[in-house]
Amino acid sequence: MTVAEGREEKVVQAFVEIAEGLARGVDAFDLLDRLAHNCVEILDVASAGLLLADEHGALHVLAASSQAARELEVFQVQRDEGPCRDAYHAGARVDVPDLTAQADRWPEFVEAALRAGYQSLHAVPLRLRASILGAMGLFGSRVGAMDEADHAVAQALADVASVALVQERVSADQTALASHLQAALSSRIAIEQAKGVIAYAGDLEVGQAFERLRRYARDHNLRLTDVAAAVVARRLTSGAVLAHAGAEG
């Protein structure tokens, strides 16, 4: 199998995972976290992150393949500067093959990205028909442009992320779309809160806490958002989640 054929197989597998997950009712956030990791493997980048806009156009971190990428996505939102922010507002890709060359454009972001070990960044919009839902950032550890074939794959993966977000339940009506995305963001907040609870209770890194939540949800055939909400509301104890992970491990 050639390198190109191997990558094509990975792309198809990523699409199939999303489709099968949606058909089984797997939580969209679980699928998108997996998709972020797929982007790293398929596109040979160091990290990937996704931002979603709420009904007011404010961006929020949706998923990330690493804590460093998550922090830089948060940085772009808080400082209101960066390639992913620009890709969302322009509804078009933003290519930054060499971050140092864009220090005047995004001074604070470039400094933070370089400090985190990234040298390049390519951002594409999350699209659903004529709507722009957010943006996906692909962080590179070395200087270099992304060719057109890679861009096409990146945009296809971003479009799949958009479909996973809205699923089949949202019509073309913009009010319904905004309402659904707002609910998605509320669910993401619950997941972040639950990760904090589990991380604190188990003295874990946030990423490890997320894996514990995801494992509990999967093994009990529950949606990740439902498990997170139960933890936050104290209907499910952190001890139960941690004990299950320990028993499995």
Please, could you describe this protein's structure?
There is one protein chain. The chain is an alpha+beta fold and 249 residues long. It has two domains: 3-167, 2-Layer Sandwich (Beta-Lactamase); 185-248, Arc Repressor Mutant, subunit A, CATH 1.10.10. Helix content is 60%, strand content 14%. The chain has a five-stranded antiparallel sheet, sandwiched between helices. The relative contact order is 0.12.
| Intertermini distance | 35 Å
> Which structural class should the secondary elements be placed in?
alpha+beta
Number of helices: 10
Spatial order of the strands in the main sheet? 2-1-5-4-3
What sequence of helices (H) and strands (E) makes up the elements?
A: HHEEHHEHEEHHHHH
Radius of gyration, in angstroms, nearest whole number:
18 Å
CATH superfamily placement of the largest domain: GAF domain
Strand content: 5-15%
Tally of discrete structural domains: 2
